[in-house]
Amino acid sequence: MDDEGISGWVIYLQLAMVLISWIRFLSFFLVISAISRLIMTLIKMLVSCFTFLFIVVCYLILMTPIFFILFQETMTACIDPIRTLVFLYDSYLGAFAYTSVQAQEKTVLWSFFLTIHVFLANTFVLNYLVAILTTVYEEMLEKGDFAYKSNKYMFIERFYIAMQD
């Protein structure tokens, strides 16, 4: 192996060690009541967002061939499937612009599909994200005290056994 390959692995190992150290450091905050609830809520929200990401990816994969097939010859944003996917993702985030259309009859169809895409993506999918996060927050309000006490018990139990010797 050359030196560049070895130094690349060393950097990744150092990064992994730093991440593991920070995770261990943050795990001590699970014993503090107010911070424990916040950290557990944040972790549960991040885990729950994976279902949201799955839905967003499925939606974008569904819409990409529709836009690609209909507008590959008339729109520069839909020349190939990758550009179409990037355009749909950008328009999902609101970063899109109306570009010149080569065929006049495609203008209405383009505007219609783009409006439907932006409406569906921003209204339904982002509202689903808000619903997920609200549900997790309300659930953690109810179960936060029990989860904090469980974490504190496991922390004490782990160090109590070690201190008996």
Gyration radius over CA: 24 Å
Structural class: mainly alpha
User: Overall pLDDT, averaged?
Assistant: 81
Strand proportion, as a percent range, falls in under 5%
Low-confidence stretches: none
Helix content: over 70%
Give a brief rundown of this model:
With 165 residues, the protein is mainly alpha-helical. It has helices at residues 3-27, 33-71, 81-92, 105-163.
What does this structure look like?
With 165 residues, this protein is mainly α. It folds into two domains: 1-30; 32-163, no CATH class. Helix content is 82%, strand content 0%. It has helices spanning 3-27, 33-71, 81-92, 105-163. The longest helix is centred in the C-terminal third of the chain and has 59 residues, at 105-163. It is elongated, with a radius of gyration of 24 Å. The two termini are 47 Å apart.
